[in-house]
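Standup notes
- DV: blocked on the single-chain target, sequence here:
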Amino acid sequence: MATTVLDHALINHKLSIMRDKNTNTIVFKENLDEIAMLMAYEVTKDLPLVEYPIETPICKTVGKKLAKQIILVPILRAGIGLVDGFRRIIPSAKVGHIGLQRDEETLQPIEYYAKFPKGIEDAIVIVVDPMLATGGSASATITSLKKRGAKNIHLVCLLAAPEGVAVIEKEHPDVNLTLAALDDKLNSKGYIVPGLGDAGDRLFGTD
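- DV (later): unblocked, structure below
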């Protein structure tokens, strides 16, 4: 497994706008879309390709296309916010969804909704969620995907706490993790510090 933190000037600029508590929902979503596009570019740069014959206006040559289907899996609900940016870069990507809620007694994530496109066994699956805090939901999502046959899984998050990264590295050492930024820690309420607050609330205007 490889954990990559993208040190990109535009991502850092836009992420700072998102962190600002005075940024409204519209600007928050605009910057999330733009960061998602930049992250999609980075995450997909080494995907496998296959060659095929094409003909330009000048001559015959060899073209290249993606070797595998890409399936995006946002973790409901905040993960939906990263889908638009990714699909602008990868319009052919299919989208699955998974929803998790915390069991009040065990405090473990429980799956309440899951629907995925066919062919997940052979696809490149990119799980997207803005925040990797404790790592519980992301780890449970990856486990669920593996049970359904997924083998090539990437996890892409906007922000992460070291605690969440440690969980993914321990429980899913075969999964590549890409972050826009690695923050300092979790606070006593489980929020990433300095973070940007609750991504879902800021994205959808709820609190």
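- Follow-up: The longest strand covers residues 124-132.
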